[in-house]
Design brief:
Blueprint lengths: L3 E6 L3 H11 L4 E7 L3 H11 L2 E3 L11 E4 L6 H10 L3 E5 L6 H14 L3 E4 L6 H8 L6 E7 L11 H17 L3 E9 L8 E8 L4 E7 L6 E8 L2 E6 L4 E8 L2 E8 L5 H15 L7 H28 L1
Parallel strand pairs: 1-2, 1-4, 2-3, 4-5, 5-6, 7-10
Antiparallel strand pairs: 7-11, 8-9, 9-10, 11-12, 12-13, 13-14
Helix pairs in contact: 1-7, 3-4, 4-8, 6-8
Length: 313
C-alpha cells in the first residue's frame, strides 16, 4: 500500500516529537516539516531527512494529512486551511480557542469527508485503556496533575494547558451528561490561571474531582476510580494499575503492569490508520469539542469567582 503523505506544521516542543513519530510510522511518509521559524524547520527537517518550509499553505497540495502543532491561537486558522485543501488533520489539544471555532472545524471536516483527530495523548496509554474497558459504573473519579513551572504552554491557562487532558479522561470514563460544575483557581506566576480544581457531577450520580497545577515543585500524576466493591489506582506514567476489591475472604489487592507503550507513536499510527480507512479516529473532533466545552466552562467559573472576590476587597 502507498504511504500516506504527511506534514507537520509547527516544529516547537511538541511538533518535533510529532515529526519524529510520523517519520517512523510504517504507513506514513513525512514529506515536510513547516514552521515560520525557518531555521527551526530546517534543523528538524535535516534530522529527519525530509523537506522543510516556512509557509504551510504552499505544501498543502503535496500532502494528504497534516499534524497541526502550532500555538493554540492558530489552531483554527491552520486546521481550517488544511481541511479546505482536502487534507486530513491531527490537531494538538485544545481543538480550538472557542466553541464557535471548534464547531466550524467539525462542520468543515464532515462536509469534506475528512478525518479530524484531536491530540488527547493519554487516551493511548495502555493503563488508561484497560481501566476504561473495565465494567461497572464509576462512583467517584479523582485526578491530580501537578507539574513544575515551564514557560512553554503559557499562551493558555492551566485549564487549557494541562487540565483539559484529564477532563477528556473523565468524560471518557463517566459516559454521562454533566449535571453540575463548580471550580476554583488562582494566578500564581503568570497572568493566567496557574492552579485549578473542578468538581463535576454527572447525571448518573458519578462525581469527579480534577486538580491541575503548573507551579508545583515535583510532577504528580494520580488517577483513581471508585466503583461499587472496588477501586483502581492508575499510575499513568508507569503504565500500571493497582486493584483493590472486596472479595469473599476480605480485601483483595493486585497489580497489573503493561508493556511500555509509546503513546505519541500510537496516536500517530491511529491517525494514519484512520486516514487510510476513512474511519472515525480514536479521539474524534466531537470528543475534542466536548473536552474543550467543559474546559471553557471551568475557566469561566474560575474567572467569575476571582472577579467576585476581587470586588469584595
Amino acid at each position: 500500500m502507498e504511504k500516506i503523505r504527511t506534514a507537520v506544521i509547527g516544529t516547537g516542543y511538541m511538533g518535533r516529537f510529532h515529526a519524529q513519530k510520523l517519520a517512523r510510522c510504517e504507513g506514513a511518509e513525512l514529506v515536510a516539516v513547516i514552521d515560520a521559524d525557518v531555521a527551526r524547520a530546517r534543523e528538524v527537517g535535516a534530522a529527519l531527512a525530509c523537506a522543510h518550509g516556512a509557509d504551510y499553505r504552499e505544501w498543502l497540495p503535496r500532502v494528504e494529512a497534516a499534524c497541526v502543532a502550532v500555538p493554540t491561537e492558530k489552531h483554527h486558522q491552520v486546521a481550517r486551511d488544511c481541511l479546505e485543501a482536502g487534507v486530513h488533520v491531527l490537531v494538538e489539544k485544545p481543538l480550538a480557542r472557542t466553541l464557535a471555532e471548534a464547531d466550524a472545524l467539525l462542520a468543515l471536516a464532515r462536509a469534506q469527508g475528512l478525518v479530524l483527530q484531536v491530540g488527547h495523548l493519554q487516551r493511548f496509554n495502555p493503563a488508561f485503556q484497560a481501566l476504561a474497558a473495565q465494567p461497572g459504573r464509576p462512583l467517584f473519579i479523582d485526578i491530580e496533575r501537578l507539574a513544575p513551572f515551564k514557560p512553554r504552554g503559557t499562551d493558555v491557562d492551566v485549564v487549557l494547558d494541562l487540565m483539559i487532558h484529564d477532563l477528556d479522561l473523565v468524560l471518557a470514563l463517566a459516559k454521562a451528561p454533566v449535571e453540575q460544575l463548580s471550580a476554583c483557581g488562582f494566578r500564581v506566576l503568570t497572568e493566567a490561571i496557574d492552579i485549578a480544581n473542578a468538581r463535576i457531577e454527572f447525571a448518573d450520580g458519578c462525581i469527579a474531582s480534577v486538580s491541575a497545577s503548573r507551579v508545583s515543585q515535583s510532577p504528580v500524576r494520580k488517577l483513581r476510580v471508585f466503583r461499587h466493591d472496588a477501586y483502581v489506582s492508575a499510575d499513568l506514567q508507569g503504565q500500571r494499575l493497582r486493584h483493590v476489591r472486596k472479595g469473599g475472604g476480605g480485601i483483595e489487592e493486585s497489580e497489573q503492569a503493561f508493556a511500555r507503550a509509546d503513546e505519541l507513536r500510537a496516536q500517530a499510527e491511529a491517525f494514519v490508520g484512520a486516514v487510510r480507512a476513512r474511519a472515525a479516529p480514536p479521539v474524534s473532533g466531537e470528543e475534542g469539542r466536548r473536552a474543550l466545552a467543559l474546559a471553557l466552562q471551568v475557566g469561566e467559573l474560575v474567572d467569575e469567582r476571582l472577579r467576585r472576590h476581587a470586588l469584595r476587597r
